[in-house]
Amino acid sequence: MTRMPADRASLSLHDLPASERPRERLLRLGAEALTNAELLALILRTGSQQESVVHLAERVLARIGGLHGLLSVQPADLTDIHGLGETKRTQLLATAELARRLSTITPHDQPVIYKAEDAIGLVQDMAHLQQEHVRALLLDSGRRVVAISTIYIGTLNASVVRVAEVYREAIARNCPALILAHNHPSGDPAPSPEDVEITRALAAAGELLDIQFLDHLIIARGGWTSLRESNLGF
């Protein structure tokens, strides 16, 4: 007699090949490659011995009316779903509230960058980081902030921070402008020769890509520096 394969839904995530697990697929392919259930499974984190977390997420979505149901889900809607304990319910309700808030955001709610100080206010936390972080502030045509992405963590030098990495997300999001920011854990915001070299390379690349490289900011406990305002590398 031919043995039928086990029901995929009854398997735990650890039973799946690593390449098929939601977390690994997200890291390898990007969040857009995952189904709604897989994304929700990453929030719920665990299933049970009888059911994978992906299958639990599928049942939750079916109960609340799909992904759109997150915008109106209430605590009572989740209380009798088997496998959904208090911790998972609070995770879902927090996600639902974020979804509701996000759905009400308009372009006018997004910060607008008029000058270096405006950008500094959005990344001031970098002054207290123990390692160097490199972030890109992606802007739309009205200089509204679309996203702030971390590009790199570690020692900043021209051999590590590639131009393509800096501009990749701006190209993917069709953002016409960006600002680079990185921190100096030493506490001194003075630009190094390498900082100026990277700025010069990024400014030249921006011209070729038709993306405005508006500024390179250095943030430290002792203050901050705008390489644009200092006329360094531009």
Briefly summarize what is shown.
With 234 residues, the protein is an alpha+beta fold.
Q: Strand order across the biggest sheet?
A: 2-1-3-4-5
Percent of residues in helices comes to: 25-40%
- Give the uncertain stretches in residue-range form: 1-10
How much of the sequence lies in strands comes to 15-25%
| Principal-axes shape call | elongated
- CATH topology-level fold name of the largest domain: Cytidine Deaminase, domain 2
Average pLDDT, to the nearest integer? 86
Count of β-strands: 5
Structural class: alpha+beta
Question: What does it look like?
Answer:
There is one protein chain. The protein is an alpha+beta fold and 234 residues long. Helix content is 35%, strand content 15%. The chain has seven helices and five strands. It has a five-stranded mixed β-sheet, with helices on both faces. Helix 2 (36-44) packs across helix 3 (53-64). The relative contact order is 0.09.
Furnish the topology, listing elements before pairings.
Layout: H1 22-29, H2 36-44, H3 53-64, H4 86-103, H5 116-123, E1 133-139, E2 145-153, H6 163-172, E3 177-183, H7 193-209, E4 212-220, E5 223-226
Parallel strand pairs: 3-4
Antiparallel strand pairs: 1-2, 1-3, 4-5
Helix pairs in contact: 2-3
Q: Top keywords for this entry?
A:
234 residues, alpha+beta, Cytidine Deaminase, domain 2, 5-stranded mixed beta sheet, 7 helices, 5 strands, disordered N terminus
